[in-house]
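Posting for a labmate who doesn't have an account.
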Amino acid sequence: MSGQAKDAAAGRSLSDLLDASAARFPGRPAVFDPAAGGEVSYAELAARAEALAAALAAAGVGAGDRVGLCLPKSIDSVAGVFAILKLGAAYVPVDAGAPAERNAFIFDDCGVAAVVGPGGEVEARAPSPRVPSPEGLAYILYTSGSTGQPKGVMLTHANALSFVDWCSETFSPTEGDRFSSHAPFHFDLSVLDLYVPVKHGAAIVLIGEALGKNARELAPVIADYGITMWYSTPTVLRLLTEFGALGEHDLSKLRVVNFAGEVFPVKHLRALRELLPGRRFFNLYGPTETNVCTAHEIPAEIPAGREKPYPIGAPCSNVEARIEEGELLIAGGPVMLGYWNLPERTGAAFLEADGKRWYRTGDVVEDLGGGVLDYVGRRDRMVKRRGFRVELGEVEAGLYKHPAVVEAAAVAVPDPDSGVHIRAFVVTGEDAGGKRPNVVTMKLFCNKAMLGYMVPDSFAFLDALPKTSTDKTDYQTLAAIARGD
């Protein structure tokens, strides 16, 4: 983190952003909720947050507490976030539609003092130990853990503000902008969606789960609400490209399209770029533990012959990057405090060097020169097959070269004979000849499109790939299918 950025984040809190915009722009729209047909001004949002903060304080919530947030995306949930922050507590958002057992584990794991539910109702829980935090813990985002239990990523006000300030430098937002809020609040993409617009007095357009997956209804919302800044996973943008009928709507106010969370296959990115000429497109990269730490602006035109995904780009101005044995390590402003109540896991996640804490991302990258990094794949998605190292992401890239493949995923499972079995899951349409590929045609194609040792052993054709609640490919489910579980 640069000295300037560190000074900018010091002594500030995320709730200060709302207070400042409510003072500067009290009558400007703060949040639109298309699903409910509602909206609130900055003055009204601040008042709701104050009222809810008072209710939480009456329930015993104070600085150093954790507070659960378990409600669908709404104006109340936005007010809930800022109410919790106003008290010096940290919010712990969960997927309201997830199994109750998972959410109960999360709330028990971090000892929440209260839970904010639908309608802004406050449910007090058994008193939990307060954690004085000089670092200013702001929120804990739980991600899937290798042990099968979610792990809590602790982020501070300074972490978030470092990223928010970088967004200000990069995207030049103003009070006239309107930001999509597509990501659920338990997904790190929501940090941009919430705090960048509030910092600048811009408006947030809430896109809940049902609307967010309905491309035909989503495109009119972008047009009708005049969204200027979009941010989502590539999966959502692909659905908009194929089923959103973008050409039928006035999207002239849209000026920035950001995507993150997974690789964007070039053929889908090219199709979207052609539908939305003149906009700025950014590939934003970073795990939850660092938020966005590198970025790459996509050129105005994507060559017809390009098949390789675009790089993840150069380190953001608020971070430093280094490569150790191919793995990307990140230090700087947005890097997490650690994992909640997992000191050994936290210790293993960092390398102490040059007087800095370097987070081990687990992602393998290649330096293309000029500070630009190319994403190769996950360390945990590399397997040895016939003596060769196979990156499953590269297998997927080869599958996407087939003109009829819409979605592709590859998983590896143990095999008693060969050691490892690669199973490809594909969603297909029709090729130029009006035919859908079958196992034989896919095998023949893969033998030409990729090296022999990378060709999948088996194929499964699905109507759609399973997705997590954050719109990423659900590899755990696919692996279970491949194992026959």
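Reply:
Got it, the structure tokens are right above this. The chain has two domains: 3-373, 386-483.
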